[in-house]
């Protein structure tokens, strides 16, 4: 087998298509145009536009299928994921579908069923962030012992390109997926609150807490209302805390100290003693490029680390549970419906 991404046994690059040329679609187009062993042959976007290297921009999905593609990347609005994905599945075209997999769990299940036995994946790009890959490996090795809590913050200004879902299904699905992935656990329960302050029909802030199957506590604060952009993941365990900044791909370990604090006033407010702080050095590659490389390998029939559609379905189900929980407010033990 070739190691440069060329399709096995055919001696030619894999022919890739892209559906959607919005902000995320343009990032996919840039990466596909530079991806070894892949040729971007067409982009579908009814609004037109230009693609890298003079690649034709087509009005209809049928026009792309007529060109003959080995796989497609679905980066159109979330509400269209199901219809586009189902057409690709019927045509036997492997698909990398941007997150979230679909606008609701029923649509996500239909995609899972349609692609059964075929190559397909979900674009949960945070799994390819080098800081989170390092964090996951260190958790698996037991570096901080038993995991007690996973806490995330994902905040920033509103991206005007998002019009068909709220902050839960857009941004929070990143945190839902990465939490399950780094811990190897599924969600067992969740409670949440949402607010709508921007005048849109969808929520633009969510605070959620829950537990994973093994009892680990989780908390997520996500919003489109802050001028401060933040991507923070902290995992607290019996030996310390691992903190990832996925904007800079930095990972820091804060170790529980072995030296007691003698200053009584300070000691009163510390659950454990303060130990060393270590910031790790490791190679940092663009997550989106790594994601595409892995999907290319999957399409070529080689071992690859991709996000299965069933995993994408679970993330959508948890997101819907967050929204459902936010709709049930309680005051002094009385549930208000």
Kindly summarize this structure in a few lines.
It is built from nine helices and 16 strands. The chain has helices at residues 23-34, 61-67, 81-91, 105-114, 130-140, 167-183, 264-267, 287-299, 309-326; strands at residues 14-19, 38-44, 57-58, 71-74, 95-98, 120-123, 147-157, 187-195, 205-212, 217-223, 225-237, 240-245, 250-256, 274-279, 329-331, 334-336.
- The spatial strand order of the largest sheet comes to 8-9-10-7-11-12-13-14
Q: Which overall shape is indicated by the principal axes computed on the Cα atoms?
A: globular
Stretches with pLDDT under 50, minimum 5 residues: 1-9, 333-337
* Tally of domains: 2
Secondary structure tally: strands: 16
The quaternary structure here is: single chain
Q: Profile the largest sheet.
A: 8 strands, mixed
Strand content: 25-35%
Q: Helix and strand string, N-terminal first?
A: EHEEHEHEHEHEHEEEEEEHEHHEE
- What CATH first level of the largest domain would be assigned? Alpha Beta
How big is the Rg?
22 Å
Description of the molecule:
It is built from 9 helices and 16 strands. The radius of gyration is 22 Å and the shape is globular. Helix 5 packs parallel to helix 6. With 337 residues, the protein is an alpha/beta fold. It has 2 domains: 14-124 and 289-306, NAD(P)-binding Rossmann-like Domain (Rossmann fold, 3-Layer(aba) Sandwich); 127-285 and 319-326, Dihydrodipicolinate Reductase, domain 2 (2-Layer Sandwich). It starts with 13 loop residues before the first strand and ends with a strand. An 8-stranded mixed β-sheet has the order 8-9-10-7-11-12-13-14. The protein has a 6-stranded parallel β-sheet with strand order 3-2-1-4-5-6, with helices on both faces.
């Amino acid at each position: 087998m070739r190691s440069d991404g060329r399709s096995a046994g055919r001696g030619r690059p894999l022919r890739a298509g892209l559906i959607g040329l919005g902000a995320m679609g343009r990032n996919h187009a840039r990466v596909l145009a530079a991806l070894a062993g892949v040729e971007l042959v067409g982009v579908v976007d009814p609004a037109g536009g230009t693609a890298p290297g003079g690649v034709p921009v087509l009005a209809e999905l049928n026009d792309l299928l007529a060109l003959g593609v080995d796989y497609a990347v679905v980066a159109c609005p979330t509400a269209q994921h199901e219809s586009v994905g189902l057409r690709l599945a019927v045509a036997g075209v492997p698909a990398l579908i941007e997150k979230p997999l679909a606008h609701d769990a029923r649509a996500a299940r239909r995609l899972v069923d349609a692609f059964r036995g075929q190559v397909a994946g979900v674009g949960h790009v945070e799994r390819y962030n080098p800081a989170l890959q390092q964090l996951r490996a260190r958790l698996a090795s037991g570096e901080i012992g038993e995991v007690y809590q996973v806490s995330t913050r994902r905040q920033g200004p509103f991206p005007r390109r998002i019009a068909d879902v709220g902050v839960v299904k857009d941004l929070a699905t990143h945190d839902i997926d990465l939490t399950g992935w780094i811990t190897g656990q599924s969600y067992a329960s969740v409670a949440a609150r949402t607010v709508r302050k921007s005048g849109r029909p969808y929520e633009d802030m969510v605070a959620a807490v829950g537990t994973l199957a093994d009892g680990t506590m989780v908390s997520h604060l996500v919003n489109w209302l802050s001028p401060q952009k933040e991507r923070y993941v902290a995992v607290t365990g019996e030996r310390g805390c691992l903190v990832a900044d996925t904007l800079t791909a930095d990972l820091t370990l804060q170790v529980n100290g072995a030296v007691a604090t003698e200053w009584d006033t300070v000691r009163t407010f510390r659950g454990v003693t303060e130990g060393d702080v270590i910031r790790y050095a490791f190679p940092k590659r663009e997550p989106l490029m790594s994601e595409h490389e892995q999907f290319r390998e999957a399409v070529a029939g080689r071992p690859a680390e991709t996000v299965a559609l069933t995993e994408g379905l679970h993330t959508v189900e948890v997101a819907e549970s967050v929204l459902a929980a936010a709709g049930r407010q309680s005051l002094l033990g009385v549930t208000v419906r």
